[in-house]
Amino acid sequence: MFQSTFRAVTCSMAILFVAPAVAHAQPESTSEAPNSASRPNIVWIMSEDNSKHYLKHFDETGVETPAIEAMAAHGITFDRAFSNAPVCSTARTTLITGCYGPRIGTQFHRRTELATLPEGVEMFPAWLRQSGYYTTNSSKEDYNAKKRMEPWDDSSRKASWKNRPSDATPFFHVVTFAESHESRLHFGVDALQKPTDFDPKTVSLPPYFPDTQVFRHTAAFYRDRMSVIDEKVAGVIGQLEQAGELENTFVFYFGDHGGVLPRGKGYIYEAGLHVPLVVRVPNNYRKLVDRELGSRTRGFVSFIDFAPTVLNLAGVRLDKAGPIDGKAFLGPRIDSAKVDTRDTTFGYADRMDEKYDLVRSIRVGDWKLIRSFESFQPDAMWADYRYKMLAYQQWRDRYHTGKLNNVQSQFFKPRPPELLFNLADDPHEVNNLASDPAHGDRLTELRSKLNAHLKQTNDLGFLTEAGMLKVIDAPVENGKRLSSEIAGYIDTANIAVMPWEQANKELLSAINSGDKLERYWALVAASSIAAWNRSANRDMAADETFVKLLHRRTLDTEPLVASRAAQLAAILQVEDPRPIFQRTLELSQSPTEALQIFNMVRHVNALAGNPYPMSSKLFRLPFNPDPKGLIQQHLDHLDRP
Fold first, then answer.
1. Are 427 and 270 in contact (CB under 8 A)?
2. Most buried in the list 25, 92, 526, 574, measured by CB within 10 Å?
3. What tens digit of pLDDT does each residue of 288-307 get?
4. What is the pLDDT of residues 540-557, one digit of tens each?
5. pTM of the model
6. Where do you find CATH 3.40.720.10 in the chain?
């Protein structure tokens, strides 16, 4: 290997100042931007599906990763780095756009239709290309939005920075390693007899897991996968060093979201959002970063911030007026002391495969609020891909056979609408403080900040997925147009967190509204209350006026509204929901609408005691479902014993 030498890049065709639209990404100091004739390379190394908890560099229970630790010794460790979403396509779309998914309509996994990017926003490597960078991706994209300008010179398994037109061309390269992907844990029982390098006896299991051979083996085996990832990281570093480019290149290592043991990927807990992030700083561009090598920061950074950070390091101008959501955390004009004061991150989880949900979170410092808008559904709601994992299967079996304690059983029970955690004392998020009067002020503060964020971003999740698809051609513009309506739906959904004496009156009015989505969210709020508050459940079921109004809503002309009424009637056990589901599915206006109704069917079919058993033969659809699609997965599951 030979020494990396300073590369003076002269790109006569480079555009010095490209103006991608970046809101709130103003520089935080006054140092000079790098000259466009000497710009660094930037490489992203992503591992799939792993939170920070599996690396000893971030968590004492993790495995040693010498290559990643060597990067950290020559760079910066970000102890509080977060994906904004806990699953691949939504997280990766946030990375590539710098935008919150619910604001731009990219929050569903898998997407039904690709969203149109906001005016002035591009997948950010397009701006790098336009300024003279060679951009490559090897090779996973998984974006939920349409490309406008092409972001990549090459996006394929063969994509490599080595293929750039000349050695003088700066490059941005992304490589994703799948050795840590969830699918690696889809092994059979025979695999339990195979030894792991990480000793299962020394594994530290979170308190919400049962302490079994299956869980210990799975946790140890996954740490072995992280050792493989570390070897892959070492390989990338070695290639850069051999080519003499290591000291010209900022190298980022991070997980593409959290995971991947149960209650990680797909869930908005820390195991689903808190990712490892290390940035190696090259000697030849050391002046661009005002931090000590080998230092750590507890300032919050999240995936919305990665795009403006890369653009800033590359010397691409950050236009103050643009509509992306992130702020740069490295590079010229960025004051590290101010970055260290950042203490807030927002998260979102919506449909993941066939399983619908709508969960939003805010973390400020060590305090975190999770708002489950469909809290009557347990976290354990079935999704085919999740339950290919032996650990998921065993966890579920032990719940149904009464072999779990209260903490281990939480995953399988209806959730409170609000979960408040003090992560300093409760890093595994098992002790909900939302009902503790001692923390009432904290709850009110975080609730207010989260609601303000949802309204400011015109969260399109409150239109339902079927409703959002009607505005997906211009999601941001339509979100602004519907801003007051969306704010109203958020307020209606939040009836679920009111004291029951107040909520009772609000529900009667909202369920009788002339606005179909206000009726929809009122029924969702009522279901959340009924599933969690036994006294309120009894009051609703005994209130003749309420039951009559609920029956009228089961006859609603809007299939989603009538289906939500049927779901609430089943929770209260005041009316058989099956004829209602039969009718609404026959009248469903799109496969997306039918998919959401089937999620309600599946929830009712899994209620304790199975009061309303259903099979696929009960339902007819106005279209033929894809035999390999998500609706067919619902139908197949209904017929399982």
1. yes
2. 526
3. 999 999 999 999 999 999 99
4. 999 999 999 999 999 999
5. 0.94
6. 41-349
